[in-house]
Structures are given as structure tokens and as C-alpha cells.
Automatic annotation (TrEMBL):
<dbReference type="Pfam" id="PF01661">
    <property type="entry name" value="Macro"/>
</dbReference>
<feature type="compositionally biased region" description="Polar residues">
    <location>
        <begin position="1"/>
        <end position="10"/>
    </location>
</feature>
<dbReference type="InterPro" id="IPR002589">
    <property type="entry name" value="Macro_dom"/>
</dbReference>
<protein>
    <recommendedName>
        <fullName>Macro domain-containing protein</fullName>
    </recommendedName>
</protein>
<feature type="domain" description="Macro">
    <location>
        <begin position="83"/>
        <end position="267"/>
    </location>
</feature>
<dbReference type="InterPro" id="IPR043472">
    <property type="entry name" value="Macro_dom-like"/>
</dbReference>
<feature type="region of interest" description="Disordered">
    <location>
        <begin position="1"/>
        <end position="29"/>
    </location>
</feature>
């Protein structure tokens, strides 16, 4: 049977919203595009090609062992410093954890960015992650936008994590309310499954994602939460995984509650253990 452990009370406090995530960038800082252009205009050859989930992953995107700050213990150490609102044991060695906090400071092997088709990260969580990642991340995003154009809804691309506490940053292109012909839920589930599959392909042990599709994308939080949890449920039922921890995180109490309620609804009492 699946077990749920609460580390705090069920009532998640609203708390103060992180102004860095939702507010405008500090005007005292240089525009990221200017920094990237100035610092890297003579180093175009350094640009790595981002990966669309389901296509061949270039070897350099999998080459993470040569970076000393990206040790395998990074995710575990960072996760240990935070307290989960709720924990769900999906299998003997795979957990789903719900957190309230700032994803830009959350350590995991992979962080998921809620992106649009144009990879134009100027609002919400996307802006916060792009800014926190620094010019290296922005340079790869700009290069990808130039060479790939729009990324289809439901797909995921990957860049380095830059200054973020992760090995890779996965840019998940979710649907926008009113522009998906009523298929928001289906596209959301597809997006989450692709992100999880890509993390699995890279043999990551931990991944953290926000409530993709909510906020500036305009899809109701309850719809997004249900889609994410159902996608996780399907993913973990497909056999043994390298992923050991899947984290859902948001800085807003009402969103965290919605994610926890979806987990309770779709996961409690379920077992994903494979028959002998």
C-alpha cells in the first residue's frame, strides 16, 4: 500500500510570495540578452544543441561527470535541508514529495521550467529560473530559439543549469488556456511524461517541477495538479526507474494545497509495485 507521511500540518500557510520569482528583474542588473551577446559573441561554437524529448540526446548533454559541483549527492543534500509538506511512497524506492518554496533555490538533478513555445522567458517561474540560471542558460536558450524556432506544445527541451542547483534545466512547453482546443489536460499530461522520460534517459535520481500550466498560462490550478499527478502515476507504473525522488514545488500556499489534494485523490491507497 502507498504510504503518505506529513511533515507538517495539512494546512499550508499562504506565506509571503517570493517577489524575486514573480516581480520584475532588478533594473540595476544588465539585461541577460546583452550579457550573453557581449560575453559569448565570439564563442558560438560553444553552444550546445538543446534536446527535444524523444529524439537522440547528444553525448555532451549526458556528459555531467566532469563538472565537480554536479555530484550525485547534490540533490540528496539539498532535499535533506528542506521539509516536505507531504510524502508519497510510490514504490519501494520512488517517492513523490510536495514542497512549498522557491524552485530557483531547490536542489535536484533536474529542474523543470514552465516554458512557452517561443522560449520567451519573461514572466512567472520561467523568468525567475532564466534569471537565476545566468547568462550561460540564456545563451543556450537564445541559440535554441534561433536554430529550432518554436517548440511544439507538449515537448521538452534541455539546457545546462548554469547557476541553478541542478545538472540540467528542462524547459517544458505546456499549453495555454484557450489556445489548446480543449486539450489542455491531455497536453499537460504529455508534457509531464516527456519531462520525466527525459530525466530518466539521463539517469537522474531527482527531479523538481512547478505546477506547469498554471499562473501566466491561465489553466486552473486543480486541472494542472490533477494532470501532473496522473502523469506521474502512469510514469511510475512502467517498471523500475533511475529516478528516486519526484518533487512538486510552488511558493504559493493555495497551489501547494491543490497539488497535495491531487496526490491524495489519485495516489492514496494505490500500489505501483511490480508483481513478482
Amino acid at each position: 500500500m502507498l504510504v503518505r507521511r506529513l511533515s507538517q500540518t495539512d494546512a499550508v500557510g499562504e506565506g509571503e510570495e517570493d517577489q524575486q520569482c514573480c516581480g520584475s528583474p532588478d533594473p540595476s542588473h544588465k539585461d541577460l540578452h546583452e550579457v550573453a551577446a557581449q560575453q559569448y559573441k565570439d564563442e558560438v561554437s560553444r553552444a550546445r544543441t538543446a534536446v527535444v524529448a524523444g529524439t537522440l540526446v547528444k553525448s555532451e548533454m549526458l556528459d555531467i561527470e566532469d563538472k565537480p559541483f554536479l555530484s550525485e549527492s547534490l540533490g540528496a543534500l539539498q532535499l535533506a535541508e528542506k521539509t516536505a509538506v507531504a510524502t508519497y511512497n510510490l514504490t519501494d524506492d520512488l517517492q513523490l514529495m510536495v514542497y512549498q518554496g522557491d524552485i530557483t533555490t531547490f536542489g535536484a538533478d533536474a529542474l523543470v521550467n514552465s516554458s512557452n513555445e517561443d522560449l520567451n522567458h519573461c514572466e512567472g517561474i520561467a523568468a525567475a529560473l532564466s534569471q537565476a540560471g545566468g547568462p550561460d542558460v540564456q545563451f543556450e536558450i537564445d541559440s535554441l530559439r534561433k536554430h529550432k524556432g518554436q517548440i511544439p506544445t507538449g515537448e521538452v527541451v534541455v539546457t545546462i543549469g548554469g547557476n541553478l542547483p541542478c545538472k540540467r534545466l528542462l524547459h517544458a512547453v505546456g499549453p495555454v488556456a484557450g489556445k489548446a482546443a480543449g486539450k489542455e489536460r491531455v497536453l499537460l499530461e504529455r508534457t509531464v511524461r516527456r519531462a520525466l522520460s527525459l530525466a530518466e534517459l539521463m539517469k537522474f535520481k531527482s527531479i523538481a517541477m512547478p505546477c506547469i500550466g498554471s499562473g501566466v498560462f491561465g489553466i486552473p490550478v486543480t486541472v494542472c495538479s490533477d494532470a501532473i499527478v496522473c502523469a506521474v502515476k502512469e510514469f511510475c507504473s512502467q517498471g523500475e526507474k533511475s529516478l528516486k525522488t519526484i518533487c512538486l514545488i510552488d511558493d504559493k500556499g493555495e497551489v501547494v494545497r491543490a497539488m497535495q489534494e491531487s496526490c491524495d485523490k489519485h495516489l492514496l491507497g494505490q500500489s505501483f509495485l511490480q508483481p513478482l
